[in-house]
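User: These chains co-purify. Model them together.
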Amino acid sequence: MTSLLDTPTAAPDAPAARPERRWCAALGLLPFALYFLVFLGGPLYFVISGAFTDADGLPTVGNLVASLTSPQYLLAFRQSLVLSAVTAVIGAVFGTFLAQAVLTARPRSPLRRIVSTASGVLAYFGGVPLAFAFIAALGQTGLATAWLRSAGLDLYASGFRIDSLAGLALTYVYFQIPLMVILITPALEGLLPQWREAAENLGASAWSYWRLVALPVLAPAFAGATLVLFGNAFAAYATALALTSGSIPLVPTAIASALSGNVLVGQANVGLALGLDMVVVIAVVMVAYLWLQRRAARWSRR
Amino acid sequence: MTAVQKSPAETATDAAVEFRGVSRVFGETRALDGLDLALRRGELLALLGPSGCGKTTALRLLAGFDRPTSGEIRIDGTDVTGVPASKRDTGMVFQAYSLFPTMTAAENVAFGLRMRKVGGAERSRRAAELLELVGLGDRGGSYPHELSGGQQQRVALARALAVRPSVLLLDEPLSALDARVRVQLRDEIRRLQLAEGITTLFVTHDQSEALAVADRVAVLNAGRMEQVDVPQEVYARPATPFVAEFVGVMNTVPVSGNRITPGAAETAQVRPEALLVGAPDGLAGTVLTSTFLGPVTRLVIRTEVGELTADAVTRPGLPGIGDATTVQISG
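Assistant: Joint model of the two components:
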């Protein structure tokens, strides 16, 4: 009988892949690696080296100091951070509610199909077309503005402008919510029905279930998706430029004016330093996102 | 079945759980069709049937996750048909993966007590006690993903028992486990159920599981009850052809007297272990398959009355595949 209790002899491992075959597999990655190098590595090198070089080509930290201390850039950073954070949180909250509402609809209901298709399109609807759509709708002579005025609500008389921070936020939310729907839906689908039933069976109200069971499970995915939304807004350039013509200082528009010498000549390297600051912000966001992703994955391991 | 039939009034007061004419219709499908079933206090009743027979529907109706289309459900004599799941005082163990993933085993077990506003110290004490009871006294701090499937189901069982529910509901709790763990946990569930004396409804599609642990077995088919009886009776005297086929293996043969007789008008149902292989006066046949099961070998023999399944005590000289042999009802 001992033979039955013995650990079964391990099956011989699959023969290690021959080195030449591994090389072949790596070769498939080559186009991507090249692409990555040319279009991410190259510009990054250009940004970093430029940020630490003065107009005469000598090494300096002056650009970086200027990018982090001059009042106009500080204002740009503050506005960019506030705009990104506010639209990320609004987008995350409303996007989650919308995604949950869609998931509770019948799988083949038209609502579900419309919202998921629309989210896929609208999440990437940005830049000049979106800015134009908002100007046409909510600009001083926009359709919605005129309609609201005739209904007795004069937006512009009450201080609203489409080319303000609030107008920008409103426009950003338009693509932030659908992006959140796309990002959070898999996590919401990962909430197993038996968790809700087990909670109910043990006497939990709907609120207790969400507070104690569902939200803790969702938290890492929710926070991670919010970070993506933050990065998405932080890096948006064309929408802001087209909507405000650069009248609202934001980091991407500040970089554009510094690089093109719109305001002051010889600020190009300060523009690169601002670019480096942005790279650092996005890198921090990405590291936090990856860490949260790993936490989120923990609950789905069984 | 007990020899003395109780009067309906008596049964009503005695029943811990009662389904009275319960039907559940989904669109065109009658998942349950006028189910009448009473669970006695403290008994383990196995609700057995193939998938789609309505057994899970019955369990979910009792738990309160679903409402019957018609009929009435009572727990301890009280009509709970309209009572929400969270107020029904049932403890349920699901098929798998029902533990709350962000809570430790102990927190999972204490969850129901937390919902009942039991104080922290008392909660931890009871959770520890329950985990001890299911043999996981040292795993209270582990998260579900750190536990094996069998351990997770033990925690789920402890969680369901922690609130001292009036009924324990088991929804195929062993189906996701591997064979050895399944038998172990099955016996453990029975041990705990007897120790706690808790009325239990055990839904399963596995007849050997049902026969092994239940006080009574209720066989359900297409939303209707086929038979409710003690396991021995269900096995020995199946009430309907469906039960005969579903519970164990059954041969239907033409008989005259107690012998298989081709062409006889009368038929009998014979279990594989009641057939004698190589009987001197047996019906001739050819062995189609031979399956070694340890103490017995199961032979499928083709005869002129059809294919018969017979269990023979394993011994040298049993006919092999393709061999000619004879078969007859033993005794």
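Chain B has two domains: 8-243, 273-329.
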